[in-house]
Every structure is written in structure tokens, then in C-alpha cells.
């Protein structure tokens, strides 16, 4: 049996990743602020053990305990444990001098600090286990393409990419770490960006929507899930 910890599963890409990983041979921990009942219903129909873990990743002080609580429910016969750091927020949007400091802090906590601490906690708490660990960080084109009004999101995704590259160079037993860029996906987060008044790239996002250039969350998740499952072997 394989275990999966997926963040941001209540909607969008995280929801689709979680749904597509539902399998009778998988143990899934869906971490999100809000519950999506349809995931539990789908899991029940497919004889999959799925646990919803209600947690706000802005609460970075509690992440070690979050992972500890999850690991207490993972038995020693598990073949692999995969952490998919998907949760992110695109807000606040706008010039940096117009962003409230508390909103900037929440953005960095969710997009960057939480994945870092989740990675650290998972490595620390599984080091004594004879299990393959896989950590997947969901990136974005915004990590390399600067955009006025999106400085916090772009910076946090760029930093997450570099964090991933650094961990790949470290010496950890039975650990696979990589990033995936799903491309532009038609999610509620993308909708917020394209409808943001005064945002320089909003027109670009609106045109992408109107011309059908956005991927569906389902299709983007399929690509990620294929790679995740391939990295289990």
C-alpha cells in the first residue's frame, strides 16, 4: 500500500490530484481548510482509505504536529509515502506598497514556508522507517516569468523551485524530490487573477481563458498523477 499526503484538496488542481489518486491500494490524507464531501464519497465507492485533515497552512507553527498526527495513522507496511505540496494562494495582488504586511506574511507562509516545513517534518519523522519518501512541489510559470502586481506569488514560487533544487543535492536515504509545473490551469485561483482590476497581466489571463489556452484541472492533474505513480517504483 502507498500513502499520499496532498495539500489544498478542497477544490481545483488539488481536488483533482486527490480524486485521481483514489485507489483501493492507496492511503490518502487530504489536507485543506475546507472539506469536500465528494472526495469521501468517491473514495468509499472505490474502497480507498481517505482521511480529511482540516488544517490552515498559514499556521506554520503546528506543521510538525500535523505530520506527526498523520504518521501515527501510517502503518509500517507502507511501501512509500508521497507528499504533494499543492496548496497555494495567488493573493494579495497589486503593487507591493498597496499590500498589507499581514497579507504578505500569510502569502509567504502558505506558498513557501509551509512546503518547506512539511518537507522538513516528513523527512525527520520518516528517517527511521524503511520506506521510499517522495516529495512533489507544485510550481508555476510565475516562478520564472515576472509579473507586475504578482510579486509575492512569483517570488514564493521561484523560491520553492530553488528549495526543491537544493534538497535534491542533499544526502537523504530513499528520498525523491522534484517539482512539477502544471501550466496555466482553469481554477478559481486563475479566475481571481484574470478578474483583478488594475492587474497588468489580467488581460493576458482573460485572453487565455477566452481562446481555450487554459488546461482543465482534470487534465493537468492527470499529468502530475502519472509522474507521481511512476516515481513510486
From TrEMBL:
Belongs to the short-chain dehydrogenases/reductases (SDR) family. The lineage of its organism: Bacteria, Bacillati, Bacillota, Bacilli, Bacillales. Its main location: cytoplasm. It comes from the Bacteria. PROSITE patterns: ADH_SHORT (PS00061). This is Short-chain dehydrogenase. GO terms for cellular component: cytoplasm. GO terms for molecular function: sepiapterin reductase (NADP+) activity. Pfam families: adh_short. InterPro entries: Biopterin_syn/organic_redct, NAD(P)-bd_dom_sf, Sc_DH/Rdtase_CS, SDR_fam. Transmembrane segments: none annotated. Keywords: Cytoplasm, NADP, Oxidoreductase. GO terms for biological process: tetrahydrobiopterin biosynthetic process. The keyword Zinc does not apply. The keyword NADP applies. It is found in: Cytoplasm.
Amino acid at each position: 500500500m502507498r500513502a499520499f499526503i496532498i495539500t489544498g484538496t478542497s477544490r481545483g488542481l488539488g481536488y483533482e490530484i486527490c480524486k485521481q489518486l483514489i485507489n483501493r491500494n492507496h492511503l490518502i490524507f487530504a489536507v485543506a481548510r475546507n472539506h469536500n464531501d465528494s472526495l469521501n464519497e468517491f473514495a468509499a465507492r472505490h474502497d480507498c482509505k481517505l482521511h480529511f485533515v482540516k488544517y490552515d497552512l498559514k499556521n506554520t507553527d503546528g506543521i510538525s504536529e500535523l505530520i506527526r498526527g498523520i504518521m501515527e495513522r501510517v502503518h509500517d507496511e507502507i511501501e512509500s509515502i508521497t507528499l504533494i505540496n499543492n496548496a497555494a494562494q495567488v493573493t494579495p495582488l497589486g503593487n507591493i506598497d498597496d499590500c498589507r504586511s499581514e497579507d504578505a506574511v500569510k502569502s509567504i507562509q502558505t506558498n513557501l514556508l509551509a512546503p518547506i516545513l512539511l518537507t522538513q517534518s516528513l523527512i525527520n519523522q520518516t528517517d527511521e522507517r524503511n520506506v521510499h519518501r517522495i516529495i512533489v512541489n507544485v510550481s508555476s510559470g510565475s516562478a520564472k516569468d515576472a509579473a507586475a502586481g504578482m510579486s509575492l506569488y512569483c517570488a514564493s514560487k521561484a523560491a520553492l523551485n530553488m528549495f526543491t533544487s537544493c534538497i535534491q543535492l542533499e544526502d537523504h536515504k530513499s528520498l525523491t524530490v522534484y517539482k512539477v509545473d502544471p501550466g496555466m490551469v482553469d481554477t478559481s485561483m486563475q479566475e481571481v487573477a484574470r478578474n483583478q482590476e488594475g492587474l497588468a497581466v489580467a488581460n493576458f489571463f482573460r485572453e487565455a481563458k477566452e481562446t481555450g489556452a487554459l488546461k482543465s484541472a482534470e487534465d493537468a492533474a492527470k499529468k502530475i498523477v502519472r509522474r507521481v505513480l511512476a516515481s513510486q517504483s
